[in-house]
Amino acid sequence: MFSALLVAMALFQAPLSSRSAPDSSPIQAIQHILDDSVVGWNTGDLARWAAPYSDAESSIFSGARDVLHRARSVAVDANRQYFTAAHANERGYLRYETVEINPLDATHFLGFVRFELVNAGVDHLRFSGVSSMLFAMEGGEWKIVMQHDSNETPSESPEPEIAARRSSPTPWVMAARR
Known about the structure:
By secondary structure, the chain is of the alpha+beta class. It has 4 helices and 6 strands; from the N terminus they run H-H-E-E-H-E-E-E-E-H.
């Protein structure tokens, strides 16, 4: 099993804070937490990657099979192995492109991103798709309180059966398919 999230127009190299500067807009702040999360994934920093996710009981990951609560705990538990030295080469490289982020009200925004995870898993597959995310203000920070991923079929697999055996191609929903 392995993971992913998000497609690339920009590769995020510089560390960014999960808290936004006081004068930044909510959309800029949300973009910054997504950027920082991708840096965390690509550098092997589990806490940094998972930081944008709410761990409230009401937070949700959903995919093709299940709806799971406590988004951060689910994501961390499902992906912990990919942040160890023994499995780091299976984590893959994550990229994304923001499609849009729109306000629902002053404390809730709806975002859509295209993602791509390349060289993931023992078979070094490519996963891509679109994620929809609901962001809410929690404790003065923007958090992802709901995420749903629509994934394309993994590609570059030497055999169709290998792709069919895969769990979820995204870190957020990985545990949903266990």
